[in-house]
Amino acid sequence: MPELVGPTSRAAALRERLSSGSGAVLATRVAAHFAGVVVLLGALLLHGAELTGIFVMTVTISQIAAMPVGAGFGRTLTREVSRGDHQAAASTWASGLVVAVPLAALSVAVGAVLLAGRLPLLVVSVSLVASTVGLAVLQLEAADRRGRGRPVATSTIEGLVPQAVSLLAIGFGFLGAEAFVVSRGLLLMVAAMVVARPPSWDPRRPKNVASWLSSANAAVVAGTQLLLVRSDLLLVGWLIGPDKVAFYAIMQRIAETVYWPVSAYLVGAAPRYAAAEDGSDLHDAVMAERRSLRASQLLATGAAGGASAAAIAVSVVRPEMGLALAFLVASSLVMVRYGPETALLIMRDEVGRVALVGLLGLTLNIAIGSVLLGIVGVPGAAFATLVSVSTMYVSLRRVAFARVGVTASL
C-alpha cells in the first residue's frame, strides 16, 4: 500500500475510516458513555450511594450474562447477514435467544449471592431475567444491523438504548429500591420488543453446528474480557458495600475514555486482519494499519492525561477513589498499547488461546482483588485490575507473535 501524503490523501484516508464505521462508532460510544455518567450522577443525587450501588450491581450482572450472546452468536450473525445467508442468520438468532435463557438463570443465581439481604429474591429474579434477555435481544439486533452495514444503528442499539432505559428507570427509584431495579429490566424488555426484528426461522432446516461452536468460543472470550474489567466492581459491592460501587463505577467510566480511540480504530482494522489470505498478506495489512494505530494511540494518550488530571482532583475529595482511578487509567493505557492483539488473534481464528489467556487474567483479578480489598479497600480492586490486565495483554502479544508471526501493536 503506497504511503499517504498531502492533505488530499489524508482527507481520503479520513473518509475511508469514517465509511468503515470507526467515526460513527466513536461518536455514538461517546454519547452512550456520557449518558451512562449522567445516569450514575442522577441516581446518586436523587437516590443516594447505597441504592445507586445496588442498581449498578444489577446492571453489571446482566451485562456480563448477556455478553456471550451478543459477542458469540452476534459475531456469527453479523457474518451470516453480510453474506446474505438469511436462513443461517435466522437459525443463529433463534439459537442466541435459547442460550439467553440459561444465562438469565445464571445471572439470578449470582445476583442472589451478591445482593443477599439487600433485595428480595423475587425482585432480583425478575430484574435480572428481564435485563439479561432484553440485552441479549438488543445485542443480536445490533449484530444484525452491523451485518447490513449500518454502524450508527448498531452503536445506537448497543449503547444508547440501554442508557436511555436506565435514565427512565431513575424516575421509578422514588418508589423504592425494588421499583428502581425491576423497572429497568422491564423497560429493557419493552425496548427490545420494539427495536428487534428477528427473521423467521424454519426449524426443519439443517443446523450449522460448526458455526454454533465458533459462536461459543467467541462468547467465552467476550464474557471473560468483560468479567476482567467488571469483576472488581462486583467484588467491591460484595465485600465492602454497594455505597462504594457507585463512585467506583464513575471512576471506571472516566478511565474507559482512554481506550475509545483504539476501540474505534479496531472497527476498521479487524476486518482487514480477517481478509488477509496468508502470512505475507497479514503482515502487509498490519503494516498498512500502523499509521492509523499511531494516531489513535496518540489520542488515547491525550485522554489519559485528562483522566490523570481527574484522578488528582478526585484525590482531594476522596483519596481512595483518586488512587483507584490512577490504577484504572494505567490499566486502560496497557489496553491501548496491547489491545490490538486481541482483535488480530480473534480475526485469525485463535479464539481458544485468547480465551485461555483471558481466564488466567480473570483468575488473577478475582484472587488479588479479594485479598487486597480487605487490606487497602477500593484501591486494591483497581490494582488487581491493573495486574490482571497487564498479564493478559502482554501474554497475548507473545501469543500473537508465536501463532501468526506478527503483532498488531506498535
Topology diagram in text:
Elements: H1 6-19, H2 22-82, H3 86-114, H4 121-147, H5 151-172, H6 177-195, H7 209-239, H8 242-256, H9 260-275, H10 279-317, H11 319-338, H12 340-347, H13 351-376, H14 378-404
Helix pairs in contact: 2-3, 2-4, 2-5, 2-7, 2-8, 2-9, 3-4, 4-5, 4-6, 5-6, 7-8, 7-13, 7-14, 8-11, 9-10, 9-12, 10-11, 11-14, 12-14, 13-14
Describe the structure.
The chain has 410 residues and is an all-alpha fold. It folds into two domains: 22-207, no CATH class; 241-410, no CATH class. Helices cover 86% and strands 0% of the residues. The chain is built from 14 helices and no strands. The chain has helices at residues 6-19, 22-82, 86-114, 121-147, 151-172, 177-195, 209-239, 242-256, 260-275, 279-317, 319-338, 340-347, 351-376, 378-404. α4 packs antiparallel against α5 and α9 (260-275) runs antiparallel to α10. The chain is globular, with a radius of gyration of 21 Å. The protein starts with 5 loop residues before the first helix and ends in a 6-residue tail after the last helix. Residues 1-20 have low confidence and may be disordered.
